[in-house]
Amino acid sequence: MNPSMTTYRLSHLVQEAVVLLVLLGSCWGCAGIQPPNIHHYTLHYDPPGQGREGPVGPLVLQVERFGTAPPYNTTKLVYATDDFGRNMYVSHQWRAIPGELIAYYLARDLRSSGIFKAVAGPESRLPADRVLSGSVDELLEMEEATGCSAIVGVTVTLLEAGQPDVSKRVVFQKSYRQRVPAARRTAGDLVAAFSSAVQLISRELAADIRNHTN
Questions:
Q1: What does pTM read for this prediction?
Q2: CATH (one of 3.30.360.10, 2.60.120.260, 1.10.10.10, 3.40.50.10610) for 39-45+54-213
Q3: Ranges for the ABC-type transport auxiliary lipoprotein component domain (predicted)?
Q4: Distances from the Cα of 131 to the Cαs of 113, 167, 171, 192, in angstroms?
Q5: Which of 24, 26, 77, 196 is 20 to 30 Å from 70 by CA-CA measure?
Q6: Are the C-beta atoms of 136 and 153 separated by less than 8 Å?
């Protein structure tokens, strides 16, 4: 087949596809069908150490990017009615992947706790004494007969950055899990329950780090 003819036919097919998409979009608009209204959410609570005064610790902590367990590796809010099923709300979504979102808030809270001289993010070039890595194991709404609860599960590992002996590098590893009932079965109350759960985990984590730092 003539190469120029092949190019012409491909170009013609592309033009037809573009016209078809435009027509489909116009039909959807004429039918009054609108795309779903997406609501985006983030966590909101005061840092546990907010307003704290006094000397800070001498060490520098770097908080690495957290991973997210496969069932929750999405910005959509996940809900469940039993132990096996996992579903997602299309119109209710987080502003970031759970691992990124929760790691940010834990770093913010540790920064205000006074445990460390500085708390740096994953892109920082500041030399660190300790490194905090982790993963979000659970972040879901559990629907129940009497209401719903926010469940948050996080596993973290605190490492000694300058320890040459690999067997001694892990300071501690621990999993945290909180289940907080929502005041009402609404998106706003559910996100408030998620915020309370992360705040509780943050307080536990700060206490454990302090015990292993002093």
A1: 0.81
A2: 3.40.50.10610
A3: 41-206
A4: 16, 15, 10, 29
A5: 196
A6: yes
Strand spans (E) along the chain: 39-41, 60-63, 67-68, 76-80, 87-94, 118-120, 130-144, 147-160, 170-181
Across the strands, what pairs with 148? 143
The token pair at 127 is: 């030399």
Here the tokens at position 152 are 């948050």
Name the token pair of 105.
């808030």
- pLDDT tens digits along 20-32: 555 545 544 555 5
Token pair belonging to 94: 């987080």
> Which token pair is 41?
């959410």
H/E element, 31:
none
- State residue 164's pLDDT score: 87
Domain ranges of the chain: 39-45+54-213
| Secondary structure string (H, E, C) spanning 97-132 | CHHHHHHHHHHHHHHHHCCCCEEECCCCCCCCCEEE
Torsion on CA atoms 191, 114, 178, 156, rounded to nearest 10: 110
Distance of CA 201 to CAs 61, 99, 116, 154, 194, Å?
A: 18, 14, 18, 8, 11
For 65-97, where are the alpha helices, taking DSSP H only?
none
